[in-house]
Amino acid sequence: MEFTQEYSKYNSLQLRDASTFFKRNANFLKDQFKDKPLRILDIGTGCGKVLHEVVLGESGLNFVDVIGVDKCPELIMQARKNYSNEHVKFLIMDIEKNWPNDEALLNFDFVFSNYAFHWVQNYKKAFENIHSALRSGGMFYVSFIHSTVIVNIWEALVNSKYKKYKSNINDYFSSLCFNEESTSVVKELLEKIGFKIIYIEYKKHDFDFGSRERFDATTNALNPFIKAMPKDVLKEYNDDLRSIFKFLNEGGKSFYVPYTSIDILAKKI
Ligand SMILES: C[S@@+](CC[C@H](N)C(=O)[O-])C[C@H]1O[C@@H](n2cnc3c(N)ncnc32)[C@H](O)[C@@H]1O
């Protein structure tokens, strides 16, 4: 999956949903952490904007040592350039690989991951890594997209007009996506690993991307077939995608996208 510079310009959905989490759980987190300066890890931090603006900027959490990790080197470079300082560092890391036994990457108080786990194939390893990275009593919050009509439409398009660009969507998305059993699968796994679950929630959302530019940039950044498509085909494909949305929204809000997420708040025992 390619995440480009474009992506970081259009992540208001991610900012909004992360902000909702902290607003909703502000008192609970305050009660858990008191005013302790926290060590925070952000997994799949991307360009670091959500970490900077929401986790560190809005949440009210006190922090001393913050690390954002992502497997995409380009985005980590961008995050370093814009947001690193003596308390905040960014590292290229794949959450599906073995977690390093390095003091700087252990004993975190809070692990956060916003809208990255739907790309994570080996989610078992990723949750085990969160367990390794946390101190006992430390908390994590992971939120990932469970389903979106965008993917259903991609599938329909590459099964018809764009057959030439077909690739297996399951190579991109976690098997937790589009799976009705996901909340119970995750619950069982987390308890086995050694977490106490505060909540696992299946949530329905919608987002109005508002403009064609924003809609295209967002769907392109997340489009598994994009690399294979020449520019002119991509334009046609985007036009088709947009007209289907317009049709689904009955000519009204053309860039309105419903989606669901799974949100997990848990504590290392
Ligand atoms: C949709 S972006 C979310 C970025 C940011 N958390 C936000 O809320 O805007 C998903 C990010 O997850 C990263 N990612 C996907 N799989 C990963 C993995 N196995 N290890 C580390 N990062 C991963 C991608 O590179 C991408 O930057």
Automatic annotation (TrEMBL):
SUPFAM superfamilies: S-adenosyl-L-methionine-dependent methyltransferases
Pfam families reported for this sequence: Methyltransf_31
GO molecular function: S-adenosylmethionine-dependent methyltransferase activity
Coiled-coil stretches noted in the UniProt entry, renumbered to this chain: none
PANTHER family linked: TRANS-ACONITATE 2-METHYLTRANSFERASE, TRANS-ACONITATE 2-METHYLTRANSFERASE-RELATED
Domain of life assignment: Eukaryota
The protein's name in its UniProt record: Methyltransferase domain-containing protein
Domain spans labelled Methyltransferase: 35-146
Species, as recorded: Polypedilum vanderplanki
